[in-house]
Amino acid sequence: MTGIIESEHRPLKGGYISMRMKKTGTAIAAAALLTVAACGGGGGGSPTETQTVGEGGDAGSGQDPEAAGPAAEIEGAQEGGTLTVNSEVSPATLDPTRSYYTDSTAIMSDLVTRSLTQYKYDAESDSMILVPDMATDLGTPNKDFTEWTFTLREGLKYADGTDVVADDVAYAIKRSFATEELPDGPTYQQTFFLDGDKYAGPYEDGTDYAGVEVDGSDVIIKMRRPFGDMPYYGSFPAFTAIPEDADTDPAKYGNNPMATGPYQFETYKPGQSLTLVQNENWDPATDPARHQYVDKWVFNWNQVQSKVDKVLIADQGEAQTTLSYTDVLTANYAKAQETDRLVTGTSPCTYFWYMDNQKITDVKVRQAVGWAYPYQAAWRAGGLIEGVTRSASTTALPPGTAGRVEFESLPGQDGKTTDPDKARALLEEAGEVGFEIKFPYQTNVPESVQAKDQVVKGLEDAGFKATPVAATSDTIRDLQADDKADINIRGSGWCSDWPSGGSWFPAIFFGDLVGEPGIPNQAQIDEPDVDKQINNILDTMSGEEANAAWGELDKYMMQKYFPVVPIGYSGVALLHGSRVGGMSNDNVRGMPTFQDMFVAQ
Amino acid sequence: MGLDNPADKIDAGASKAPEEIAGRSPWQLAMEQLRGDKVAMICLGILVFFVLVALFSPLLSRAFGVTIDTPEANILLSTTGFDGMPVVGPPYNGFIWAHPLGIAPSTGTDNLAFWMYGARTSMGIALVSTVAATIIGITMGLVAGFARGPLEAVISWIIDFFLSLPFILVALSVAPILVSRFSTQPALLSASQLVALLLVLSLTGWMALARLIRGEVLSLREREFVLSARAIGVPTRSILRKELLPNLIAPIIVSFSLGLPAFVSAEAGLAYLGIGVTNIPSWGRTINAASNYYDTYPLYLWAPVAGVLTLVVALNLLGDSIRDAFDPKTRR
Question: Hey, are the CB atoms on A469 and B183 less than 8 Å from each other?
Fold first, then answer.
């Protein structure tokens, strides 16, 4: 999902075209500063010994349309108890329509709100698989993927005992167009759905929307252009069921949304805490992925990470049934690893140094930057753990993306090699020795300042002139979002909304986006052949064919134009207490697999 | 202080050498009392040590063979592990002479060099700010106390105005303004951050002294010696300088000596918040970076903490002793 960037140990993501990185309290870092991410950790509470980021496998690229409820029992699972989750960040909202960060989507989808489809953890591949949820399968498309039909299961109920009907799902879809009243949610519906550019949601335009039809228990969604990734998109909490008469005040609905999953809200204090209790009306027989092992979930947000780490490492009393979904601090990593209770894994993000292709026009200069960048030194100075929270990257698409092609963007560059001589040779060839690189950093974030120092050294060694541009954690996003800013590098990243190139290229490498407000195409790459292929894939391909074509496009674009320096794939390192069971890494989000977790007695 | 008390000497020496009764100025009395104060002398010794470290930090660094430079990538990668913790020296390996206090995790910079240069930053900033704040405070206090009419009202209003400024908020709001103004000029940015820090510290640190001085002046200005000076036509400037100021030396020195440690802590505090200087070594910056390592790499944190703590305690105790020495009421 998302978008972007960095900062210390906070994950979270942001969105499609509109935003890269929206993370709370974080910042992006100019040079690769901090990180987040995830990678495939150990299953069932016992992390594998040497997890390496970047080998997480298929982040949800697997699909199982046949999966049926109830979900298989987790080995050793027991019922009862309370799990406590402490986190350094807090979700801004839990309204299903607005849930777009990794934490809000994981909490809502795994525990509270069911949607058309969902992800299920597959222990064998240590990866997430897309399976049906409220729908009986992963949807049936028409021939050219412009119409999708989802059939709802029998026996779906809200926590109050009333039945879930197809009209409620249709209303939830309509509601997602109300981006004025309900901002910050995913916006693919506006790009792909019929009249998505015209319909402004039920509050403004009424519920009369041609893009969604209901026929008995069927929900039919019509597109204005082919949308082969609809089954993935249907897993967002926005595609849950919301009865129209329950949505009397859109601003307040998120304070206690109608629960369809195994848990429902008991108390919710936005930004502070959330308590979930069991939903008696959830029927496991209808759900192929979720479990209802614990009696209660308690989420505490805005905690101090160093304290969270200490408590979990000490593992006394209540800490034994506690976990965190924000990364362990670098300072505590060694101790955390000794506990054997650290779950590591990938999250589907790649961090980039986006080079402004309109200002750094010579591809040789861009390639020189790729050889000059001090990958390992910048990671270390930036407080990242090599191989855990950040690993070497050679492609734009992160590992686990369906159809991804493994290749080296610069021949011989394994993603962590710095070779000033090669860089200088390229610069000389281009006649650009002394080329000025202007990149932002944050003066008030020590890791950013430290990484900046290493990057300056690396660039200068290679014959560049390095000009770090000072910003603060409050201003760096505005600086990088300003297409007039006097910088020619933007450091940030991108995370998949679903594991296909379809949530990457049209969002961040599409030439038509050059000049758009907010600079979604941060590399400002505007190459007709790349654009043509993006349009070609969007308009004529779907499914496996499209996935493979995105993978090839990645190779073609990176090797021919090298518009961005891939500076690392992301990973997560999450700690849990000794009686927490079933915790693995959800590599679609870089979050714990809440739906499988239990308390060991 | 009893033994050196002039009164004792007078008794003891009365029979032998009456001429030694000769008068001593309050200054001499105070100095004499200070010299006999063990605590003050120890603190002075500590202070001298820090002053020497600060003055000669480049030479000392060279003597130890350490520098504050950012290490080259190959040195960084060979001295830190994949998780950034040092693979030489503390906390996991033995002492090495190349880095007596170890190296910083992640960045591989030398802790001793940063400590010594940090002392220089702390003391330099504290000294300059204290001097500036003292000069402003004396001037404003004298004028406010001696002036009558509108000028007094205006100055009193200015003092109240500055007293109402929340120091941390001012510092917090100045930092981003500077960063955006000088964002592309790293050299100017560090210079401006330093100047801004000095300005913020001194402009928010002079009011207490000004009020103190104003009060003293108010009580002095109707005294006979001032009235006579006015009667014979001495210009106001001279009255302030020659008649009033000498009577205010004691409170000024006390305020100065207690201001220094306050500014040392303020500088470290601001650096800890990330809004002080960001491109020069500073104890506060190191403490900020090291706070997450308090149990995995204690030395990294405790060295700068000990520096701030020792210096501030020494300065405070010395300041107390100076106050006692200059205050006739505490002199026995």
Answer: yes
For residues A503 and A497, the answer to whether their CB atoms sit within 8 Å is yes
Question: Is A8 within 8 Å of chain B by CB?
Answer: no
CA gap B123, B314 in Å, rounded: 13
Q: Each residue's pLDDT tens digit in chain B (332 positions)?
A: 444 444 444 444 444 545 567 778 878 888 888 999 999 999 999 999 999 999 999 999 999 999 998 888 888 888 998 888 999 988 888 899 999 999 999 899 999 999 999 999 999 999 999 999 999 999 999 999 988 889 989 999 999 999 998 888 888 888 888 888 888 787 888 888 888 889 989 998 999 999 999 999 999 988 999 999 999 999 989 999 888 988 898 889 889 988 999 999 998 888 888 777 878 899 988 998 898 898 889 999 999 999 999 999 999 999 999 888 887 776 54
CA-based nearest residue in chain A for residue B281:
A446
Residue with tokens 């601001």: B270
Which residue, among A380, A391, A419, A455, would best test binding to B if mutated, counting the most B CBs under 10 Å from its CB?
A: A380
Q: How far apart are CA B84 and CA A240, in angstroms?
A: 44
N residues, chain B: 332
B26 contact A CB<8A = no
Please answer yes or no on whether B189 and A443 come within 8 Å at the CB atom.
yes
Cα A150 to Cα A144: distance, rounded to the nearest angstrom: 16
Rg (C-alpha) for chain B, rounded Å, is 25
Closest residue in B to A336 (Cα–Cα)? B296
3-state secondary structure of A434: coil
Distance of CA A272 to the CA centre of its chain: 23
Residue A157: φ, ψ to 5°: -135, 150
Chain A residues 481-510 within an 8 A CB cutoff of chain B: 486
* Nearest residue of A to residue B273, measured between CA atoms: A444
Q: Can you say whether the dihedral through the CA atoms of A412, A417, A422, A424 is positive or negative?
A: positive
CA distance B250 to B252: 5
Phi/psi of residue A490, each to 5°?
Answer: -125, 120
Q: Which residue has the tokens 């304070």?
A: A255
Residue A162 carries which DSSP code? P
Characterize the bridge pairing of strands A465-471 and A436-442.
parallel
Tokens of A572: 């997560």
DSSP-derived 3-state class of residue B85: coil
Question: How many angstroms separate the CA atoms of B178 and B180, rounded?
Answer: 5
Q: Please state, in angstroms and rounded to a whole number, the distance separating the CA atoms of residues B306 and B45.
A: 16
**Which residues on chain A are in Cβ contact (under 8 Å) with B288?**
446
Task: Inspect the interface and report whether the beta carbons of B80 and A380 lie closer than 8 Å.
Answer: yes
Nearest CA to CA, how far is B276 from chain A (Å)?
9
Range list of H helices, A462-586: 476-481, 505-508, 528-540, 543-561
The DSSP bridge pattern shows strands A436-442 and A140-141 to be unpaired
What six digits make up the tokens of A85?
């989750």
Inter-residue contact B324 to B30 (CB < 8 Å): no
Q: Quick one: angle between helices A446-461 and A363-372, nearest 10?
A: 120
DSSP H/E element including B13:
helix B6-13
DSSP state of A164: P
Q: What is the dihedral of CA A189, A194, A195, A196, to 10 degrees?
A: 10
Tell me how many degrees the CA angle A293-A299-A302 measures, rounded to the nearest 5.
160
**Residues of A with CB below 8 A from B293's CB?**
331
Nearest chain A residue to B92 by CA: give it.
A334
Burial A520-540 (b: 16+ CB within 10 A, else e): bbbbbbbeeebbebbeebbee
Q: Are A27 and A445 in contact (CB under 8 A)?
A: yes
Q: DSSP class of residue A2?
A: B
Strands A296-300 and A82-86 come out as: parallel
